[in-house]
Amino acid sequence: MTLPSSDTLVDYPTGAIRSSSRVLHVEPLGDDLVIVLLDRTSCHPVDRAWPDQGPDLAVIESVDGARTAVRDCVVGATDGTDLHLGDAVPVRPGAEGWTFVVAHLVDGAGAPDEGDTVEVHVDAAHRLALSAGHSACHLASLALNAELADAWSKPVAIDALGAPDFDGLAIETSTIGEYGSVDVFRVGKSLRKKGFGVAALDDLPDLESRVTARLEDWMAAGADIRIERDGEKLTDRRRWVCELPGGVASIPCGGTHAESLAALGGISVSLTSEQTDGALIVRMVTETVVPS
Ligand SMILES: [Zn+2]
């Protein structure tokens, strides 16, 4: 039951939905589940550092054809003695002396054995839907930043296209779903202090149509989307790159993505807001249609 001493190699950044893997470690988790660690995997885990995109749906298939469903897939870390999962990982990714792994949680009854060769099969339709949703989320954020660029009276951090980064400065939560995403922004005192003029959010239907028009222009260009990465390890840095008409956008990202803007069909954005104590909460719902 030795724990691995090198990070899991990940295939999903290339778009892969299958990998041939070796079982490195199997460990019970509670009464019913078993943690399976592989040398490499195509199954995208939910990651504390990038919690916006949820886990893939997948099965692990043994050489004898036995298949067991992956009930959950999370990032874990080990110091060689104990294995910690998800929020219980006590150190930051890449911490010295720690190994970061993709932990597949499967039913105890169907778990493979250590040393087995297995195949990971990811549900293609679900992956496609999440990838489309994730790409649309990045694009909508960039378009929103661009349309709000004039609302700032002071210099602030800029986004991948050089616009003031409203998304990065105001984001509360970002959730990627199938073929879409929900972003929640908080516009309160600290954002106003940084020079954001809240009046820019007075006419949301107008802002919504400007964001949508900008997205339509980008979609018409049909640019490729690619993931650049420093290496195959789970902890190697990865970036989402898209050559948009306004410049090359490059954003740190651990998720999966559509292959091109053409693969997204169209993106629609809806913006709503509500006033809470001292802050305006803005909700951006992004939906994409993938051409069949
Ligand atoms: Zn991302």
DSSP strand tally: 16
Main beta-sheet annotation:
6 strands, antiparallel, barrel
The unique ligands bound to this protein are:
zinc ion
Unreliable stretches covering 5 or more consecutive residues: none
Provide the number of structural domains: 2
Q: Please give the order of strands in the largest beta sheet.
A: 2-3-8-6-5-9
Helix content: 10-25%
Descriptive report:
It is a single chain. The chain has four helices and 16 strands. The protein has 292 residues and is an alpha+beta fold. It folds into two domains: 114 residues, Elongation Factor Tu (Ef-tu), domain 3, CATH 2.40.30; 162 residues, Threonyl-tRNA Synthetase, Chain A, domain 2. Strands 2-3-8-6-5-9 form a six-stranded antiparallel beta barrel. It has a four-stranded antiparallel sheet with strand order 10-11-16-15. Strand 2 and strand 3 form a beta hairpin. Helix 1 crosses helix 4. It is elongated. It starts with 8 loop residues before the first strand and ends with a strand. The mean pLDDT is 95. The site of zinc ion has 5 residues, from helix 1.
Short description:
The protein has 292 residues and is α+β, with helices and mostly antiparallel strands. It has four helices and 16 strands. The relative contact order is 0.16.
